[in-house]
Amino acid sequence: MNIKEYIKEKIVFLIINSIIFLFTGILLKALKVDIYAIFFVEVLNFIGSSLFYIFDYFTKRKFYNNLLQGLNNLDKKYLISEVIEEPNFLEGRILYEVIQETDKAMNDEISTLTIKNSEYKDYIELWVHEIKTPIASSRLTIENNPSPITKSIEEDLDKVENYIEQALFYTRSNNIEKDYMIREISLKNCINATIKRNARVLIEKGIKIEIDNVDKTVYADSKWVEFILNQILSNSIKYMKFPKSVRKNSIDKENKKQDTIKIYCIEKAEDIILNIEDNGIGIGESSIGKVFEKGYTGENGRIFGKSTGIGLYLCKNLCEKLGLGIKIRSKAYKGTTVSILFPINKMFILKD
């Protein structure tokens, strides 16, 4: 708040005061009051009005400037009610009371939503654990009754389990700090566990896995890392086969002698970069910058009709919260490479 803004705000009152001064002088002159007395009265009125506006200006200026400065210095703007003091003028007290009431109402609403969100999260986690029983029972039935039909059912069960896992990790992703522990882990073990989980579909689809230089020690949570690797590997498998419209030309004959996924590490300074590289359909330039957006399926998702747009979004979100870096490079019909950067920082690390 500056003097120009204040004058602009009070311009009507200043005009009214000026008119009153003028009519007072005219009235006193008509009453044949001595000119010196008129001058004295006008000066007193002017001094009194000026002192009022000066006091009013500095009082409000102090309050509003402190209010704006406090607001600018806060990361969480809704805490402004905690840092301002109640002013001694009416307009400021009204504003102060409004801020206090709205802040209280907002805190009550947040508390209600937090409780509901916690209850929903607990329900999802309970549901996920409960649904595993009928899935395990279905797999047992499939094993005891092998046939083309049960094989197809088993493929659908794999998809169901992946979607269930996405739902579970999605509900936990907002409170990941309470559900992970950074430890010294073997990257090779995480990769082997992920490959083993997808072994059946890799064999059925004839996809070759090449692993090189992955016997590394990194610092992360193995459960979350395996989830991230599984989402990336699942995408590589899902988009490995070219659609029929592409197979009509010679692109895949030149570049896809065999479906292959390469998993290898590169050491850069003190960081370890894990690369998952495939020679699948790849991602077009128009989509590559949006693949980590929530719900984005892109052209490939529409062609194959299998994408939820959640997998890579979760990978990005979890990597950020775990302090990892993630990057994707791709060219249409030439494959995709997803890189995960593990910074080596041994401070505050728990060892198994």
From TrEMBL:
Location (main, coarse): membrane
UniProt key word Coiled coil: no
Stretches that traverse the bilayer: 12-30, 36-55
GO biological process: cellular response to phosphate starvation
EC number: 2.7.13.3
Reactions mediated catalytically: ATP + protein L-histidine = ADP + protein N-phospho-L-histidine
InterPro entries referenced in this protein's UniProt entry, alphabetically: BphY/WalK/GraS-like, HATPase_C_sf, HATPase_dom, His_kinase_dom, Sig_transdc_His_kin-like_C
GO function term, MF aspect, one: phosphoprotein phosphatase activity
Residues in Histidine kinase domain copies: 126-346
Keyword Thylakoid tagged: no
Pfam families named in the record: HATPase_c
GO CC, one annotated term: plasma membrane
Annotated localization: Cell membrane
Membrane topology: Multi-pass membrane protein
The entry's keywords: Cell membrane, Kinase, Membrane, Transferase, Transmembrane, Transmembrane helix, Two-component regulatory system
Top EC category: transferase
Name recorded for this polypeptide: histidine kinase
